[in-house]
Amino acid sequence: MNRHTVTAFDTDLAALVRDLAGMAGWVERSVERAVDALMTGSADTAEAVIEDDERVDQSDRDIEAGAVLLIAKRQPMGDDLRVIVSTMRVSQDLERVGDLAKNIAKRALIIDGAFHQRKLARGVDNLANLVLSQLKRSLEAFVERDTAKAREVWAHDTEVDALYTSLFRELLTYMMEDPRNISACTHLLFCAKNLERIGDHATNIAERAVYAQTGELIADDRPKRDELGLQDVTARH
Amino acid sequence: MSSTTTVAEKVSTAADDAEKASAAAASEAQDVAPGGTTITDAPPETIKMRGKDVDVFYGEKQALFGVSLDIGDRQVTSLIGPSGCGKSTFLRCLNRMNDTIDIARMEGEITLGDQDIYDPTIDVVELRARVGMIFQKPNPFPKSIFENIAYGPRIHGLADTKADLEEIVVTSLQKAGLFDEVKDRLDAPGTGLSGGQQQRLCIARAIATSPEVLLMDEPCSALDPIATAKVEELIDELRENFTVVIVTHSMQQAARVSQRTAFFHLGILVEVGATDQIFTNPRDTRTRDYITGRFG
Predict the structure, then answer these.
(1) What single DSSP character describes residue B37?
(2) From residue B197, how far is each of A233, B24, B206 by CA, in Å?
(3) Which of A108, B175, B215, B260 meets the CB 3.0–4.6 Å disulfide criterion with B133?
(4) How far apart are the CA of B29 and the nearest CA of chain A, in angstroms?
(5) What is the per-residue pLDDT across B27-60, written as a single tens digit (0 to 9) for each?
(6) How far is it, in rounded angstroms, from Cα B125 to Cα B127?
(7) Which residues of chain A are within 8 Å of residue B282 when distances are taken between CB atoms?
């Protein structure tokens, strides 16, 4: 794409997207480390995630301020407008992902019995890997303006939902097997739900990537398999 | 604008013409083949004016290439594009203002309702009463506020009595949102008003002859932001009763006041669509580069 006649506009836009990419790096790391804390029971790692959340929140505020200033200064149109507005929304999504990672880290601190929990948490780890890949790819799609990749991420969210549903059943089974698992499994269930929601944010980011590039707003008509699964499970037990 | 070409108008028109002709000459428009226009919206529900395959030449130079554009009834259509792109040329074809330039020649067809406005039997003076024009610089007659507006209706015989005429003057001033500001000094010279008031006086003068279409050629470019806001507000109100076609260099203004936008480049009508769409998601690369400030 050609450069703007006013080159400072290009500079400002590039800075905004760069800030978002920086924030994305922090958020991805937080999710990774929160799950790591959950698997290993490392209190240091969990506490680091909780501390880092303030940095993520600050990034969100900075990006919003930068975007508002750009709109006021340049009155952007067309793709510029779509990119700036989408950047604000992606930043909001990332801020929420940061909160969810922090919540996982907090639960990692609470759950005791590290030896036992590792076996129980294996399913959560699988879900985390899938969700992290979705998050990374959605952010790549946004920054690299790759709509094909964004659409893939969008379509793959059903896998996250399916995995979450099966994990729900699995954790429920552990709880029925041994009531001493209930406390840990309930926390793990919340962690799984948090990961599933991170997956939804990745889908939002993918939608924003498509919108920023093409102006097309993808209608949210993905099948909601988790809810169906939930009904199914609760009906049986 | 009154329906006859007055001295004040001629001066403004001539200055405008020289500018437009030189702009057209400076452009590389003659090398460009007529291109297909990208139309991204449904045609207007009711079409007030229709341009079909319009070519315009200033002497040897071709300024417009096969422009076809439908103007929707009672909506604001904005024409945008860089200097010399042909948008003013097209606007001026709509009430045959280009007739006043000796070297200008038009081919193609422009209709108002069912009528071909270039038909030799058309009375151009009457046409310009139906298709009024507002220029970049406010150009009130050197007469009183009252006379500025009364002039057109009087020479067109639109008022039988003095009371009728007064009513037209008052209504026109009201519609132009100027009445309250000038009601105590209708005898004062129109040229004594502020720039923004003068422009609204010109709009009042144009609507005094009950036109169907109002053409505006950068009507706010000589006004300050507050006067601009008032004129924009007025344009929005005018579309209840009139069809408005506006040429503007301010994309924000086009985005604010119009429902449909046409983008011209090098004498070609590149893209036409709903204003909302043109400014958020244009289809043609040239439109995109222009509205996002990436031209040249």
Answers:
(1) P
(2) 73, 32, 14
(3) B215
(4) 22
(5) 433 333 345 899 989 889 999 999 999 999 999 9
(6) 5
(7) 78
Residue partners of B168: CB distance under 8 A and separation at least 6 = B149, B150, B153, B158, B159, B208
Task: Name the nearest CA neighbour of A29 among A126, A92, A101, A108.
Answer: A101
Quick one: which H or E segment has residue B286? helix B285-291
**Residue A228 corresponds to which amino acid?**
L
Determine contact: A79 vs chain B, CB below 8 A: yes
Residue whose tokens read 């301010």: B250
User: Quick check: ipTM above 0.90?
Assistant: no
CA dihedral B226, B229, B235, B238 (to 10 degrees): -70
Tokens of B18: 């020289």
Which residue type sits at B217?
A: D
> Could you tell me where the DSSP H helices lie in A75-121?
78-110, 114-120
A7-40 and A122-143 helices, crossing angle to 10°: 170
Reported pTM: 0.80
**Distance of alpha carbon B101 from alpha carbon B121, whole angstroms:** 20
CB contact under 8 A, A9 and B289: no
Token reading at A46? 């969990």
Q: How would you class A188 by CB atoms within 10 Å of its CB: exposed for 0-12, middle for 13-18, buried for 19 or more?
A: buried
